[in-house]
Design a protein that fits this description.
The protein has 108 residues and is α+β, with helices and mostly antiparallel strands. It has three helices and five strands; from the N terminus they run E-H-H-E-E-E-H-E.
């Protein structure tokens, strides 16, 4: 089976309500959580974390009740956004895609 692509749109409202240096209230995490809910993916909490491989989404409350990590393809864009946002520099809305394995996806 082919992976499912979820489109994430970080909007101005995510930037305005986001909290710098907070992985759960990061504008990107909020936008990703919204995109997953729109795609009918069962998830309860999203956190963005920095790892040696780049930024990853940590998904709490997955169907198996195990935290799941998903790599972000456009790490340079995400990294620049997070660095700027966390340091009080201006940021603008942007979009990116995340691929989920079919077994992780619960939508149509």
């Amino acid at each position: 089976m082919q992976n499912i692509k979820v489109h994430v749109s970080v909007e101005r409202k995510d930037i305005v309500t986001g909290v710098p240096k907070d992985g759960e209230k990061c504008p990107i995490a909020c936008a990703f959580e919204r995109a997953l809910r729109e795609a009918q993916y069962p998830v309860y909490e999203i956190c963005i974390e920095d790892s040696h491989e780049g930024f990853m989404f940590r998904m709490h409350g997955s169907p198996s009740n195990v935290d799941k990590y998903i790599s972000i393809d456009e790490n340079e864009i995400v990294d620049a956004f997070i660095q700027n946002f966390d340091n009080g520099r201006p940021v603008i809305p942007f979009e990116f895609d995340v691929e989920l394995e079919p077994k992780e996806y619960d939508g149509d």
